[in-house]
């Protein structure tokens, strides 16, 4: 014979509180809260991503992105000849991030206005120059001889320099130029020897 519920001792019975309905509204409130937070995050990230397209140039927006009008570009620098780059610096950005905005053929370049002969060494000011009808750059480093390091219109070294000029990442829209100051493209030192692994005799 089966055991009936009524035959169980009273201490095994479920209390009256077990018959209360589950507070479902609390679950819905919690889900709604998380959905609201997620929506706010999505909207915030969308505004951050589209900020360079929403502001009126010139402006520096979140993420160290400098928005410039298309008129800030110099004329097309075909073949690297004839047109000097435009300087961009204070008061839009601080002196340490100053750069030259140039066009070489179909490319737009933001060349940093300081350079060092090697990573970690003292930086030298960079100025545009014209040599034999070719636009390029020179860096005058602080030395007794005052030696000039020369670079072509794209910032590649053309003499004793072992590394080129550093540049910022640039994107061009229909009516604006966006320079990402947080994305510095550091030129590699082509004269530095690769690190040699240390070899020790066995047992040491």
Question: Short summary of the structure?
Answer:
Helices cover 15% and strands 29% of the residues.
Q: Whole-Å distance between the termini?
A: 82 Å
- Helix content estimate: 10-25%
What is the C-level CATH assignment of the domain at 59-185? Mainly Beta
Give the topology string: H per helix, E per strand. HEEEEEEEEEEE
Specify Rg, calculated over alpha carbons: 32 Å
Biggest sheet character:
7 strands, antiparallel
Strand content: 25-35%
CATH fold annotation of the domain at 59-185: Rieske Iron-sulfur Protein
CATH architecture of the domain at 59-185: 3-layer Sandwich
- SSE class: alpha+beta
Count of alpha and pi helical runs: 1
Mean residue pLDDT = 78
Unreliable residue stretches: 193-204
Q: Give the strand tally.
A: 11
Which strands sit side by side, in order, in the main sheet?
Answer: 1-2-11-10-5-4-3
- Using the alpha-carbon principal axes, give the shape: elongated
């Amino acid at each position: 014979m089966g055991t009936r519920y009524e035959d169980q001792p009273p201490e095994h019975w479920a209390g009256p509180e077990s018959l209360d309905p589950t507070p479902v509204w609390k679950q819905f409130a919690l889900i709604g809260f998380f959905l609201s937070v997620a929506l706010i995050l999505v909207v915030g990230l969308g505004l951050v991503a589209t900020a360079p397209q929403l502001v009126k140039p010139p402006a520096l927006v979140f993420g160290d992105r400098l928005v410039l009008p298309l008129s800030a570009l110099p004329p097309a620098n075909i073949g690297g000849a004839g047109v000097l780059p435009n300087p961009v610096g204070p008061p839009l950005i601080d002196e340490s991030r100053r750069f030259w905005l140039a066009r070489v053929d179909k490319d737009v370049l933001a060349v940093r206005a300081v350079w060092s002969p090697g990573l970690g060494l003292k930086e030298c000011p960079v100025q545009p120059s014209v040599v034999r009808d070719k636009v390029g750059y020179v860096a005058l480093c602080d030395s007794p001889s005052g030696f000039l390091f020369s670079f072509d219109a794209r910032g590649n070294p053309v003499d004793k320099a072992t590394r080129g000029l550093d540049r910022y990442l640039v994107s061009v829209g229909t009516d604006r130029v966006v320079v990402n100051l947080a994305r510095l493209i550091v030129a590699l030192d082509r004269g530095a020897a690769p690190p040699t692994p240390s070899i020790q005799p066995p047992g040491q």
